[in-house]
Write a structure and sequence with these properties.
The protein is mainly α. The protein has one domain (6-119). The chain is 48% helix and 10% strand. It is built from 4 helices and 3 strands. It has helices at residues 6-24, 30-49, 57-72, 117-121, and strands spanning 91-93, 101-104, 109-113. It has a 3-stranded antiparallel sheet. Helix 1 packs antiparallel against helix 2 and helix 2 crosses helix 3.
Length: 126
């Protein structure tokens, strides 16, 4: 049996983290899951070109899915911190770095690590 490469480990982990957040937000419909798969395919190529970027994959997949959902369905994930004003989405920070997390840019607070939205929003456990 061949060991799983660091690239494949990172891609599988990114997929699992983003899927956990989608499940927590109750938006993990088949067409949305397909968006995750499309991002993983794109990011596989990206990391093959820039291997040092492997630790950034989870945040990039989260951003890719967030962007694709905005184009097709609307904002995701909605901020659970701000109780008033217009609904707004959380952002992934750092934009290109390790240990990605969801933050509310308006309140300036870290809400949850990517993959842990369920614990922060009262959704399905991650």
């Amino acid at each position: 049996m061949n060991p799983i490469s660091p690239l494949e480990q990172a891609l599988h982990a990114a997929r699992a983290l983003v899927l956990a957040d989608l499940v927590a937000g109750e938006v993990a419909e088949p067409d949305v899951v397909s968006l995750v798969e499309e991002s993983v395919v794109q990011r596989r190529w990206w990391v093959e070109q820039w291997p040092e970027g492997v630790e950034f994959v989870a945040g990039l997949v989260a951003q890719d899915v967030q962007d694709a959902l905005l184009e097709r369905y609307g904002r995701w994930p909605l901020c659970p911190v701000c109780g008033s004003g217009d609904p707004h989405a959380l952002d992934v920070e750092p934009e290109l770095g390790p240990d990605p997390h969801w933050v509310c840019g308006k309140a300036g607070v870290k809400v949850a690590a990517v993959g842990s939205l369920g614990a922060a929003t009262g959704g399905a456990p991650s």
